Amino acid sequence: MTQDVYELGSIFKIFAFSEAVEEHTVQLDEPIPVTSPYKLGHYLIHDFEKLGPILPAAMVFAESSNIGTAQIEMRSGPLRQKPFLRRLGLLDPLKTELPEVGSPLYPRHWETIEAATIGYGHGISVNPLGFVAAAASIVNGGTLLKPTFLKRDSAQEGERVVSEETSHTMRQLMRLVVTSGTGVKADVPGYDVGGKTGTAEKAENGSYAHHQLISSFCGVFPISDPQFIVFIMLDEPHGNRGSGGFATGGATAAPAVGRVIARVAPLLGVRRSDTFAAANP
Q: What HEC string does 124-137 produce?
């Protein structure tokens, strides 16, 4: 979780959308063209499945469109994207009580094409705990906290990285992923799970191995007042009958996160949201 670094794919869209919401470069109801493929210079950007021709920006996030996210990220561009990710701690080695730590890998030349692909999690490698710390800062009200393995008696004072308004909007978007998007298999009745799926092809010999995936899901609950974050990453999962033959994050890691939340939430004393309605008819 700290020593190795990985390209994590679409869970990085959390940061692309956070940046766009923070900088007011996107309206969640605005139409975004997502016709596949999208040509950017000499490169073609594809989505996992056809989503077009147009999606509202909120559904670009929920349905995890690379094409839509790339266009939204390019509104900020590399000059704003790079310092934003650095504020989240994603471009520097993570400091914890563990001595083993892997340094992030990212392009030396960070131009428009790199900004677009990094927006959907390709071309940048980070360690899982560093990702989780950054994702937590987006949903917890906008404060970056330093991960620790030691019990603390008081709350940390952290650095503000996004506004409370941006954090609130991102919680809504992450809930949309689970109710209407790629993360529906992570839903747990009564615990209001939010999250984001990730599916990345593994780099191999200077290119990508199309059938060797890093599949993941980052789940947060309860999303209205986040207390816990659960991140599961699977190295080269295989599709089976239960996943419909797919090995994506939504088909493999998302249901695993849902099962973890269903088991641990009662142990942690998290009150089910549907008990509030029953108590207040």
A: CEECHHHHHHHHHH
User: b/e for 161-198, b at 16 or more Cβ within 10 A?
Assistant: bbeeebbebbbebbbbbbeebbbbbbbbebbbbbbbbb
136-192 tens-digit pLDDT: 999 999 999 999 999 888 777 889 999 999 999 999 999 999 999 999 999 999 999
Task: Out of 10, 137, 167, 216, pick the active-site residue.
Answer: 10
For residues 130 and 93, give the distance between their C-alpha atoms in angstroms, rounded to a whole number: 8
Q: How much is the CA Rg of the chain, to the nearest whole Å?
A: 18
Residue 221, SS3?
A: strand
**Cβ–Cβ < 8 Å for 99, 77:** no
d(CA 45, CA 73): 13
**Residue for token pair 């989505």:** 47
How far apart CA 229 and CA 54 sit, in angstroms, is: 32
DSSP three-state, residue 111: coil
- Cα dihedral 107, 110, 112, 113, rounded to 10, equals -10
pLDDT of residue 86: 97
Vertex 123: Cα angle to 257 and 166 (nearest 5): 60
Strands 207-221 and 228-235: antiparallel
Which H helix or E strand runs over 209?
strand 207-221
CB 124 within 8 A of CB 12: yes
Whether 273 is catalytic is no
